[in-house]
Specification:
The complex is a heterodimer of chains A (168) and B (596). Chain A is 44% helix and 12% strand. With 168 residues, chain A is an alpha+beta fold. A 5-stranded mixed beta sheet of chain A has the order 2-3-1-4-5, with helices on one face. Chain B has 24 helices and 17 strands. Chain B has a 5-stranded mixed beta sheet. In chain B, strands 2-1-3-4 form a 4-stranded mixed beta sheet, covered by helices on one side. The chains are: A alpha+beta (168), B alpha/beta (596).
Chain lengths: 168, 596
């Protein structure tokens, strides 16, 4: 398990988001073992799981904050930090790794000046090293939001990132 | 009736290669030509040959188009569909028949010829989002047969007789597992499917769920009937959005058709199915951790016994099988236990799907009868190692498995043989490595993975994997002693004997198997402070040879100004400044820079 990094970004949830979450929780709390689906729904809505959101879930599901924080920090898909508008995930599964995914990751970090697991100061890019995404035929692979880039070499990285850096 | 069927792969690999855009353009073009009632376009599951994606196959000819791009769509429709001329330059080139200009159908290529597809039989053949297509290929017949002709015990006897063993890694006899779950008394029991395919490099479960989701639903319903359960859960990775979507569509369709829910096919058997998403914890592939996770907790394993068949999900008797195991069930029911048992070796029956990856030409999914030699898989089906490099090792079983060196290439692959040579079947990832891969680095890669994924519940795993990684770190940076090597090996055995669950017990395997077969590589790192494959940065030195023309290109590119020399004279690298980034080697046009 990695170190838990708490966000320094102020919470900016809206009333609509809260209403949506509470409506969702009304369904999930009826499920047996509904905490995971609740957290998944909350992350869908807010993009991450700040402490304010965990409190709402604790209240609705009637479980302790300790339990919620424990689950939220156990699973790597849950994030306590806001993600960038462009979320970059570099697959470091075995197939990608043996084909040089480590170099690709380093290059992206260098170009965007951001460490894996972090978000750029302007909130534009976040970079993560992820587990195998199952595109081993295209190794090495990274994704920017839903877009997949396969058979990438480290030299191609700046060219791929350029339109994202220049665009909005 | 349609005169042509165009199958477009919609698996994750080809989807990332824009196959959905190809399908959209194809439909548009067919409509523009007024052919929409004569030619049918289908989005299928994975064909298996991901290295050649996006893949398009046109029937009845079976013409296999590889690396198709959106701009090729018009040509395929105009030439092949309208004029009847196969577009040869887009065809997949089988290495064997490059000279011959004959058109080979899919099943005749080297890649498919040696395969026997049972679990993957419908992948790449049917539209996974249409239950009617599954039914047309004998879908739900096994369920009907079970519900009308067999008692629950009959079903279990058939599965036992088939010799099917768990495909998730452990290889426990499936029929025996079902029997345990049936024998435990209880009104409420659960059937679970483990689709938390976390082994890096394995993606067969994803492909089955993406290409043939109903096969899993049908098998789980049969399992429910056999053990007396009315509720099933599929625990699937959230990282597989296409599989989740198709499985949900399939569940909804099965409910609509009365194949899931109350009183299935008027038999009085009720069975319902729910999807639960994993959230990225490798340990949740372990059965007790998976159930703890479905219950909504941190996915930590619990001690066994009690086994899940006695006290599992929500404290009730639970049957848990892997996706690929379920994918075999319906075929066993329909074609008989003898048919299944006729394939494979003495103790490992049937077929196994492997995800071929790494340094191999045909990366993708292959399904082979148990007992097929590794050489056949790598050299014939896999098309060998690209760029003329030499085979070094094949890694099976992911982070729990080991590396198989060249001397065992002819060993028939089955559960017991792989264990006897220090590896394991695992879920079926098969990563090929060539001479450029450093085995210590690979062991370190896997340990980094298991260390990160250790749930932290038991000390041997939580602390042990961390300490193992530290040893490997010392070795790869040239700081280790021969004593460290011995201590590390002893620690491996300690962790194996004392960890709580499968993750910890198998975590040292990558280290032990590489120590067993590649000890000289470890010794080279420790004693000579050298990395023979030139991977471990700290141990690598870049040097400039006499081939240097003094063009100064490398010196200008070096980010830390470690290279000096006059124009037209041989340059030198200052090792105290060099950060070993390799830019100079990439830059040099005369191959004058070598790694040592």
């Amino acid at each position: 398990m990695g170190k838990i990094k708490l966000t320094k970004v102020a919470f900016s949830g809206t009333a609509e988001q809260e209403a949506e979450l509470r409506a969702k929780l009304a369904e999930t709390k009826k499920m047996q073992g509904g905490l995971m689906p609740s957290l998944q729904a909350a992350q869908e809505i807010y993009g991450y799981l700040p402490i304010e959101v965990q409190k709402i879930i604790a209240e609705e599901l009637n479980v302790s904050m300790e339990e919620i924080f424990g689950v939220a920090t156990f699973y790597s898909q849950f994030t306590l930090n806001p993600q960038g508008r462009y979320q970059i995930s570099v697959c470091i599964g075995t197939a990608c790794y043996v084909k040089g995914a480590g170099e690709v990751l380093d290059k992206i970090a260098e170009v965007l000046k951001v460490e894996p697991g972090e978000c750029t100061a302007d909130g534009k890019f976040s970079l993560n090293a992820t587990r195998c995404i199952g595109c081993c035929g295209l190794a090495p692979v990274f994704t920017i939001n839903e877009q997949v880039f396969g058979k990438v070499t480290k030299d191609e990285v700046p060219g791929i990132l350029r339109p994202y850096i220049d665009g909005e | 009736m349609f005169r042509n069927h165009i199958l477009i792969c919609g698996g994750t690999g080809c989807s990332s290669g824009n196959s959905h855009e190809i399908a959209r353009l194809m439909e548009e073009k067919l409509k523009a030509e007024g052919l929409e009632n004569e030619v049918k376009c289908i989005m299928t599951g994975c064909f298996g040959l991901c290295a050649c994606g996006p893949v398009v196959v046109v029937y009845p000819e079976g013409a296999f188009y590889a690396h198709v791009k959106p701009e090729n769509v018009n040509e395929i429709v105009e030439e092949h569909i309208i004029k009847g001329r196969i577009v040869t330059h887009l065809l997949y080139k089988d290495p064997e028949q490059v000279e011959k200009e004959t058109v080979k159908s899919l099943n005749e290529t080297q890649f498919y010829k040696k395969q026997t597809r049972v679990a993957l039989r419908n992948c790449g053949l049917i539209d996974p989002e249409n239950i009617d297509e599954y039914i047309a290929y004998d879908g739900y017949q096994a369920l009907a047969k079970v519900l009308t002709e067999y008692s629950p015990q009959d079903v279990i006897d058939i599965i036992k007789a088939s010799g099917l063993r768990g495909r998730g890694g452990g290889g426990f006899p499936t029929g025996v597992k079902w029997q345990f779950a049936k024998n435990t008394p209880g009104d409420i029991k659960y059937v679970c499917c483990n689709a938390d395919e976390g082994d890096p490099g394995a993606f067969m479960d994803r492909s089955v769920l993406e290409g043939d989701p109903h096969a899993v639903i049908e098998a789980m319903t049969i399992a429910g009937y056999a053990i007396g359960s009315h509720q099933g859960y599929v625990y699937i990775r959230a990282e597989y959005p296409i599989a989740v979507k198709r499985l949900q569509i399939a569940i909804n369709q099965a409910k609509e058709y009365g194949l899931l829910g109350k009183n299935i096919l008027q038999s009085g058997h009720d069975f319902d199915l729910e999807i639960r998403l994993g959230s990225g914890a490798f340990v949740c592939g372990e059965e007790t951790a998976l159930m703890t996770s479905i219950e909504g907790h941190r996915g930590e394993p619990r001690p066994r016994p009690p086994f899940p068949a006695v006290k599992g999900l929500f404290g009730k008797p639970t049957l848990l099988n892997n996706v690929e195991t379920y994918a075999n069930i319906c075929q066993i029911i329909l074609r008989g236990a003898d048919w299944f048992a006729s394939m494979g070796t003495e103790k490992s029956k049937g077929t196994k799907v492997f995800a071929l990856g790494g340094k191999i030409t045909n990366t993708g999914l292959v399904e082979i009868p148990m007992g097929t030699p590794l050489r056949t898989v790598i050299e014939e089906i896999g098309g060998g190692i690209p760029n003329g490099k030499k085979f070094k090792a094949a890694q099976t079983g992911g982070p729990s498995g080991g590396c198989i060196p060249a001397q065992y290439l002819d060993i028939p692959i089955d559960y017991d043989n792989l264990i006897s040579i220090g590896s394991m079947m695992g879920s079926g990832g098969l990563i090929v490595m060539d001479e450029d891969n450093c085995m210590v680095d690979i062991a370190k890669f896997f340990l980094q993975f298991t260390k990160d994924e250790s749930c932290g519940k038991c000390t041997p795993c939580r602390v042990g994997t961390q300490r193992l990684l530290e040893y490997l770190d010392k070795i790869t940076t040239g700081k280790a002693t021969m004593q460290d090597l011995d201590d590390m090996e002893a620690l491996c055995y300690y962790i194996k004997d004392n960890a709580l669950c499968g993750l910890g017990q198998t975590a040292p395997n990558p280290v032990l198997s590489t120590l067993r077969y590649f000890r000289d590589e470890y010794i080279a790192h420790v004693r000579d402070k050298k990395c023979p494959a030139g991977v471990c940065k700290k141990l690598v030195r870049f040097e400039i040879t006499d081939a240097c023309k003094g063009c100064t290109a490398c010196a200008r590119k070096c980010p830390v100004n470690a290279i000096s020399g006059k124009v037209k004279e041989i340059h030198t690298i200052d090792p105290s400044k060099c950060i070993k980034c390799g830019v100079c080697m990439d830059t040099c046009k005369f191959n004058a820079i070598v790694k040592k």
